[in-house]
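Course assignment 3, question 2. Fill in each field.
Student: A.L.
Task: Predict the tertiary structure for the chain below.
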Amino acid sequence: MTRAARSLFDPEGRARVATAVTVGGLRVLVALDVDGTLAPIVSKPDRARVPAATLRLLARAARLPGVTVAVVSARSARDLKRLVPVAGIRVAAQYGLEGVVAPAAARRRRWRRDAARIATYLAPVAAAVPGARIEAKSLTAGLHDRAVSSRRLPALGGSLRRVAAAAARLGFVPVRGRRVTEFVPRGYDKGRAVTQLRRRYSPRTVFYFGDSEADERAFAVLGPDDFPVRVGPARSRAPYGVRGPARSRARYRVREPGDVARFLRLLLSLRTGRSDKQPGGAG
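Answer field:
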């Protein structure tokens, strides 16, 4: 049985972080989701913003010797460039379909055509459900339900399952994020992206911060010496048609994006030997 996540900032969690980032100058990968992790969730995805203070911390962390900082997101590379305009940050956009671990161009050309077809399948679904909104990101297609009333969600789930059956014939599968269902080429998810980042940069320890069902795949590929960190509730949100919330695979948790910034301050303090005097944050 999966244990309940513990606070990253309780005495034991903090001690483990200190050991992981200071002993022997070991290489560290800090990989982070964006929406709900670096940027607070807002009603419309295009209004999301990463706080300026967090961007400054990311920039400083990216310059640390032996530390690789990466964002792993369902968003497009163009969106991430706008949201996280930080030099030195590695980007795995659209579940790793864009950025430093992207597959070959020929495969992406085919997926662009298929993602466009899936967007046409989603169009009548969105038209029939007030508040639903399609997002086509070239290599994936998704339907946001942040503005959909709870009473309409079961019907929306049924419609999405029918789209999923059609998408499967094109080799795409549904991935549930925070109030969004994305259709992604089979085999591509945040777990794969994190695995490829690990192979590319060879860290001794990986920290991964995420807040949604899509991030559970990344938590699942991390080992006993890594830090899978859930941002928000200790339990993951259930997708449509599933009763009750499932317990997250993350072994650690923090409450909100502000605590992710708190971790970055701690990382900087531990690596540079300078005291972290910033208050706030709880686990």
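Instructor remarks: The domain at 105-185 is CATH 3.30.70.1020 (Alpha-Beta Plaits). The first helix runs from residue 11 to 22.
Grade: pending
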